[in-house]
Amino acid sequence: MQFNLDHAIAILNRTPVVLRAMLADLPADWVTRNDGDKTWSPYDVLGHLIHGERTDWIPRARIILEKGEGRTFDPFDRYAQFEQSKGKPVEELLSEFEEERNANIQALRKMELKPDDLKRIGKHPELGKVTLEELLATWVAHDLDHLVQLARTMARQYQDVVGPWKAYLSVMKEGG
């Protein structure tokens, strides 16, 4: 599938709605349990997405448009949420994410990107040369990846009580 900015924005607009539908007003067990050692709870995922909104997607897009390869992106702290979200209620995090995402979508639209802009190159600290199109496509895929992670983590909370149906549920299998 070819990248399409309007389609990307349509997905990015939906993520806050999906997160709110999945997490708002749930008992803490559903939101704070993870899938085992070195895994993230839905709460952790939400904090991670907020951190990404503040430090990753739009800031990096601006670097590409303003500096190109002349400035390497700041490294992204994949674990910042553990301190930044600590102690905040889920409702507060959902609202923060909605606000950050809405502001970032507005900023993206104001960039009035043309096809040539999407081919512009930036420099990732680990991956090297990347295009603006790749960055924006990754933003969408990153959202969807974490929504899958969140759903999988929540589903596995019932892995010991679904009985024999576990055999039919790919989400319960390793790598599922």
Name of the CATH superfamily: dinb family like domain
| Average pLDDT reading | 95
Instruction: Report the principal-axis shape.
Output: elongated
What's the tally of helices? Answer: 8
**Largest sheet geometry:** 2 strands, antiparallel
The CATH architecture comes to Up-down Bundle
Going across the major beta sheet, what is the strand order?
1-2
Q: Please provide the ordered H/E string of secondary-structure elements.
A: HHHHHHHEEH
Whole-number radius of gyration? 18 Å
For this structure, the quaternary state is: single chain
CATH class: Mainly Alpha
Features of the shown structure:
Four Helix Bundle (Hemerythrin (Met), subunit A), mainly alpha
Report on the structure:
This protein has one domain: Four Helix Bundle (Hemerythrin (Met), subunit A). It is elongated, with a radius of gyration of 18 Å. Strand 1 (121-124) and strand 2 (128-131) form a beta hairpin. It is mainly alpha-helical and 176 residues long. The protein has a two-stranded antiparallel ribbon. It has eight helices and two strands. The protein has helices at residues 5-23, 28-32, 42-55, 57-67, 81-84, 90-110, 115-118, 132-155, and strands spanning 121-124, 128-131. Helix 1 (5-23) runs parallel beside helix 8 (132-155), helix 3 runs parallel beside helix 4 (57-67) and helix 3 packs parallel to helix 6.
